[in-house]
Amino acid sequence: MDLDWARAGHSRIVILTHGLEGSSDRPYIRGMSNVLNANGWDAVAVNFRSCSGEPNLQPYSYHSGSSNDLKLVIEHVQKSYAQIAGIGYSLGGNVLLKYLGEQGADSKLLGGVAFSVPCDLKGSALQLTRWDNRLYMWNFMRLLKAKVEEKATRFPGIVDASDFDSTKTFEEFDNRYTAPLNGFKSAEDYWAQCHSKRVLPHIKVPTLLVNAEDDPFLSDSCYPQKEAQENPHFTLERPKYGGHVAFQQKGMYWSEQRAINFLSQF
From the CA atom positions of the chain, what is the Rg in Å? Predict the structure, then answer.
């Protein structure tokens, strides 16, 4: 994993995690880093394995459940900072929520903010098979194909990129690549073990999830209202608009201001 740092001389820091096939160079990561620096926080953006432009040297890959990778980053950041929070987007938001739920009161983060999170992986995967989401799926598969082809060259016999173009959905991709390369039995097993919704009741530090009502990636099951009502440490907000990792308004992302306001309690 490669880390990009935005240091402004502050004593506390936020770890940023990007979405599927994103990187630290995405506008939402750069923008949030700038806003954090201006409001008392340093920032460090995680590039998940293979997302920095440098190939992943292992056969396994990053995925929606990569909370062990986040834990590794936190342990590294702890060497320089005592106060650490997290902000995650989409896939990176699921990783963040999963970490917070798994760690509970032992979390090394003060708290977290997550935007546009497919916290029910199966529900989101099925949502993206809808006809009106076909362009999103086409683009994801185009990006993932390049990664798979590179990995097949590096690990012949382990990864097979032949006939990749027949892979049209996340279920097919996860069954063929994500699950076997990362120790899961199937796409269903991967989704069941890695969706953050199942561990939301165990979060014990202040955590905010913002999922817009008009997010085309999210199924109804990705709005965990019951979990928020029953856990005083976990807050769900459902703005009417915002799309998927958008939340734009004049001058800055609305999500940037919302994150800063939430982090101010720390």
Answer: 18
The residues pairing with 222 across neighbouring beta strands, listed in sequence order, are: none
Could you tell me the domains of the chain? 2-121+196-263 (3.40.50.1820)
Side-chain half-sphere exposure of 71, counting CA atoms within 13 A? 12
Mean pLDDT of 43-59: 93
3-state SS assignment for residue 234: strand
Coil, strand or helix at 80: coil
- Region 11-29: mean pLDDT is 96
Determine if residue 98 is left, alpha or beta; phi over 0 gives left, psi from -120 to 50 gives alpha, anything else beta.
Answer: alpha
Alpha-carbon gap, residue 88 to 90, rounded angstroms: 7
DSSP 8-state secondary structure symbol assigned to residue 196: G
Tokens 């995405």 -> residue: 26
